[in-house]
Amino acid sequence: MSSHFSIKNDFLENRLINNRLIFSAIFACLLFAIIMIRLVMLQLVEYEHFNALSEQNRVDIRALPPQRGRIYDRNGIVLAENISTFDLELTPENVPDLAATLDRLAELVSISSDELLDIKKTIKGQRRFKSVTLKQRLTQQEVATFSVNQHTYPGVEVVGRLVRSYPQGALFAHSVGYVGRINTREQNRINKINKQNYQGTHQIGKTGVEREYEDLLHGTVGYQQVETNVQGRIVRELFDVPPIAGKDLFLNIDVNLQGIAATALGEFNGAVVVLDPKTSGVLAMVSKPDFDPNLFVSGISTKEYALLRDSIDRPLFDRTLKGYYPPGSTLKPFVALAGLELGVVHEHTKSFCPGWFRLPGQDHKYRCWKEHGHGQVDLNEALYQSCDVYFYDLANALGIDRLHRSLDLFGFGHKTGIDLPGESKGLSPSKEWKRSARKQAWYPGETVISGIGQGFNQMTPIQLAHATAILAMRGVNISPQIARATRDNAHSAVTLIAPKKTEILPMENSQHWETVIDSMVEVVHGDRGTARHIGKNISFKIAGKTGTAQVFGIKQDERYDAETLEKRLHDHALFIAFAPADKPEIVMAIVVENGGGGSAVATPIARSIIDQYFGITNND
Questions:
Q1: 380 Cβ contact list (under 8 Å, min separation 6)
Q2: Is 436 tagged catalytic?
């Protein structure tokens, strides 16, 4: 009986074991089948997808920004260069705890709370794989401190970079300009035009030559494929396409001439423009007050920028290109040419100056600067003594529209076409202009004062210099040009930039040029010339014309008294000149804001420039 139960139990136990074995075998086969199916899926169906993900984690494409071209003066003196610096950068997607990392870094390398706020806004506003600059121009101490602790900051690294520098400081702040961080508006423009070429580039030309020749100076971006670890650091370089550096640019500007012009202007605000009349190359271009362009390269602080922006003297404003000034008596040579060419006057036409001019049938007196008048004067005497009455009379005889058309030939009221951004066109008035702009009729009295460069007349210093160059060259018109030549690199040849198209003014009688220029020579070298004090101890002749421009109007029964006026209400002093008068090599236009009479302040600046250019040392 017990034997029977034992046999039965053994049978049941064996059967259970067999069932388990069968179940295990089925489960193993099923699991193996699932694994095989998944393996097939991974190897055949989803291979491309996961291979791509793997490569993205392992391989990174990094942009190699090009070195920006240098800028030199005409003699090879550096005006803009690139210096090596170290920046601290962060790639958000490689940082495990972004907020904590930023807070720790701010203490490690001295990032202010305002800077930290700007950094967080930048990170939030762009894709997480793009690197963000946390701090530029790290000190050696900051580089060393971070390097010791770098292993605790995944996704953060010190990056060597070339940064723009302006060794001449404020001397070329307006003409050469500066680069600065690419803002949103500029980035949007880059994205539409040439997004790829600015990958890895953080700066762009903002003003002056830096902006005008951005495409030439920037260069072509390169690329580097690298293998990185999980923290985003480079393990090895796979291959690269090196960047192509921007071209070097040589300017027509002469550092020494620029320095003399700036020094001679002294503490006055104003502008000086010096041209080579044969090519219209810009030899000097000074606007004061000025500023240090190096402040803008890495991002100027809000406080520093506010001081410049809100200053009553407007140091950021380029007076050479944008400053509007009444030309005053510097317009008289051009008015004289209009009178000669149109046959309204000839060289010996005389007018009587009692110290005032009156239109027929009117009581209002238009006063001459010389209270008791110049008496009988012809064209020559009127120019070198700067008689206002003669030119009141001449302008009235010409009429505003004929005067406007004549001045139009010299570019007044038009942009000169100089190769710099932001040029203003000034204003040369006419009946049509006033009707269109002011919805008013033109009055004869407005014609009278236009004859001495007052009223609505507004010219920029570059315009005045350009018009003077046309006069000096007896009608040859070439647009001013600041860039002289380019160079691919330090070992390549220099390629000259051709001057812009030349035009010749249509003058009926070439002798008219000489008549006016001879009178301008008398301004400097004549016994009664208004600039005679600068014509001494020189072996050639200078042609010039002084000018005084009123800052505010004076009533009929009032007199101008500089001693009772605050400085900002003093007249502007102007002077135009070229030398030698017969074969000009240098042309200039000078505006001294609130400097008073043109002969007292502006003319010595011209003589300093001429002495520097021609190497004159004996100027007692």
A1: 347, 515, 518, 519, 522
A2: no
